[in-house]
Amino acid sequence: MKALIFDMDGLMIDSERLYFESERQIAARFGKTVSNQILWKMMGRKPVESIRIFIKDLNIQVGDEEILRMRNQMMRDKLKNDLVAMNGLYEIIENFKAKMKLAISTGAPREFLDIVLDKLQLRDVFAFCQTSDDIRNGKPDPEIYIKTCQGLGLNSGQCVVLEDSENGVVAGKRAGCYVIAIPSEYTRGQRFDLADFIADDLFAAGQHIMEMNVKPGYKTK
Q1: pLDDT beneath 50: ranges in the chain
Q2: In the chain, what is the straight-line distance between the N-terminal and C-terminal CA atoms, in Å?
Q3: Is 133 a residue of the active site?
């Protein structure tokens, strides 16, 4: 394996909590409540795709651009003031930055990625970053991971993907990558049977990758 590709939201940073808060606050403004099932469907997708699911499932009579503007403003504030790295993020980066190319594939816009990289002081760590800004179809479509592998100059079979959501796992597998699922408290109710390996946290994921790369005869699915 020559590259390690990180999802961002819920994998690198504890941002699913912030998205859930924002979306529930928006729903409340319209006298609605939003279930975990709806929020799960929205995960990993392009921003406008997730907002269209939100509007349709809650039957909100407002345009997607207006709802997206509301959520973006909330998320800007939350990312700037309440951004927390997931446990083990710095350790897994330190352990693999000299051994594998590191990349990010996120359904978030470039604006949010820039905030995260600057706040966590990780801007110079990643060889390639792919956001939702220049893809047509968000996760679970494989486009974002296919483009990331191309950007790294590698075949998808040489890349390990780290994901916390069902949509992300499906996207990674459809792209042909080896996928490690790391469910968070916000995604543990989702299905991860397509993942090649399920880890409790980033520490366990890192240990598994080390075993993959050093065990003689180790084969991925």
Answers
A1: 216-221
A2: 13
A3: no
Architecture of domain 16-81: Orthogonal Bundle (1.10)
Rounded Cα gap, residues 55 and 22, in angstroms? 14
Segments making up each domain of the chain, as ranges: 3-14+85-214, 16-81
Catalytic residue (choose from 7, 14, 164, 196): 7
> Which numeric CATH code is attached to 3-14+85-214?
3.40.50.1000
Nearest to 103 by CA among 127, 138, 120, 124: 127
The full length of the chain comes to: 221
Query: Would you state the pLDDT for residue 214?
Result: 61
| Helix spans in 30-139 (H) | 36-42, 47-58, 64-81, 89-96, 110-120
Tens of pLDDT, residues 94-142:
999 999 999 999 999 999 999 999 999 999 999 999 999 999 999 999 9
**DSSP string of 151-197, one letter each residue:** HHT--GGGEEEEESSHHHHHHHHHHT-EEEE---TTTTTS--TTSSE
Give yes or no for a contact between 34 and 54, defined as CB atoms under 8 angstroms apart: yes
Q: Do domains 3-14+85-214 and 16-81 have the same CATH topology?
A: no
Give dist(CA 124, CA 45) in Å, integer.
26
